[in-house]
Amino acid sequence: MTSRPREAGDAAPRRRTVLLSGLAGAGAGVVTSAGAAVARERAAPRGGGGGGGGGGGGAPPAPPAAVARERSAPPPPDPRLTRARARGRAFRGEHQAGIIEAPPAYGTFVGLDLAEGTDRDAVRRLLTVWTDDIERLMDGRGPLTDLEPELAAVPASLTVTVAVGRRVVETAGSAVPSWLAPLPAFEKIDALDDRWGEADLLLQVCSDSPTTVAHAQRRLVVDAGDLVRPRWVQRGFREPFEGAGLPMRNLFGQVDGTVQPDVTGIDADLLWTGAGAPSWLRGGSSVVVRRIRMDLDRWDRADRVTRENAIGRRLDDGGPVTGGGVDAAADFSATDDLGFHRIDDAAHMRRAHASVPHERFLRRPYSYDDAPEDADLSNSGLLFVAYQADPVRQLVPVQQRLAEADLLNLWTTPVGSAVFAVLPGARDGEILGQAMLG
Questions:
Q1: Beta carbons of 255 and 316 less than 8 angstroms apart
Q2: Least CB-packed of 12, 55, 171, 381 within 10 Å?
Q3: What count of other Cβ atoms lies within 10 Å of the Cβ of residue 201?
Q4: Residue 377: is it exposed, middle or buried by C-beta count within 10 angstroms (0-12/13-18/19+)?
Q5: CA distances, 387 to each of 145, 260, 404 (Å)
Q6: CA angle 341–345–350, rounded 5-degree value
Q7: C-beta of residue 73 within 8 angstroms of C-beta of residue 5
Q8: Using an 8 Å Cβ cutoff, are 140 and 155 in contact?
Q9: Using CA atoms, how far apart are residues 362 and 290, in angstroms rounded to an integer?
Q10: Which residue, 380, 88, 367, 98, is CA-closest to 242?
């Protein structure tokens, strides 16, 4: 009987046993062994089998050759599976993945603190483990300690980005960038909660599959052993079916993340650290993660004109209220019949507009929607994630203008804030943070 040819991704037509012996090594509690864990794969039984049963006449006549060929031809590939198995940019390179790529639909941000007494050698072991784990996960393979490698087989454009806080740099004995510290207080608007505050390490895990994100997050945290302890986990999402040309919509219905710098071209120096940064950070960046609570319950009471006036953009296509599409330049001098600026003097768009060329940064925001607290009907908002070479020079001036007078402050409150140094990429034979560790 003719059997269907085996396709890529099918289980092998035999039983395989893979012994996972874990990671050798010791010190500071890092996971050093997976035990004698056994992961087994079995192929699903192929159709047709044989055997005996009672009675009966001989085998039916063979089908015509054309019919036989049709039956034996593999089915066309499922485009959903093709997308799901897609791999992001290769792990190795000058820069880490998960920064300049288009943001996938799901992102989780994990802030972790080093255990007390952790030294440079322990940080090296941690980053060695994470380097190997991340390279495998982004390639659709489970880490060495993974007892569910099937959950890693669908990377769905997975990227994992590692960043460090001040304590890690000091523990490594390297120079600390001047900007690697909490942002200045924005007293008019901030209501920061320490549970969303500064941490020693950041894992940014993004994929088009929430299962892939959850699995990668768990493997990385578990494989760190007792070297670290999670401080916070913030899960976000983006609309995967938004119309062409629109970066994303936040939960206010606004088109978010417009007017980005050309970080792969003439604005690359706005993203990647240069000569002014410590040498170990060349090819790296900084990332600011701010958790912004959005009062959807009050926003529901604002009419459409009020909402567009607060933003300075139309809600339907994200274009400025002065005309044009989402990428059109705003006319900040345009006035209405009464002589008032068509883009309000306190509109978010006007306040966020760069007053000098370097006040720009790469935004990769995600929405969040968690369980309501107290008597609120919702607990929703934006994970504002900004990458830049120097947050004090590029981001802080913009945030100060927004804090002073931004109409959106009527409906938004920053409740979390953290700053990290994004490690350079790992080239062949290197681990993440190798230059920092010396």
A1: no
A2: 55
A3: 25
A4: exposed
A5: 32, 11, 23
A6: 100
A7: no
A8: yes
A9: 14
A10: 367
d(CA 4, CA 50): 16
Euclidean distance between CA atoms 345 and 34, whole angstroms: 60
The first and second tokens of residue 43, run together, are 């192929």
- Which helix (H) or strand (E) is 159 found in, with range? strand 159-164
**Helix extents (H) in 348-390:** 348-352
pLDDT in tens, 18-54: 323 333 333 333 333 333 332 333 333 334 333 444 4
| Closest to 216 measured CA to CA, from 145, 125, 151, 150 | 151
Residue appearing with tokens 């794969």: 41
Check if the beta carbon of residue 270 is closer than 8 Å to that of residue 389: yes
Count of beta carbons in the 10 Å neighbourhood of residue 296: 17
Read off the pTM.
Answer: 0.82
**CB contact at 8 A, 382 and 256:** yes
Residues acting as catalytic residues: 256
Question: Nearest-CA neighbor of 285 among 372, 387, 375, 144?
Answer: 387
CA-nearest of 224, 249, 18 to 131 is: 224
Tell me the HSE value of 266 on the side-chain side, using a 13 A CA sphere. 3
- Which residues are 368's β-sheet partners? 381
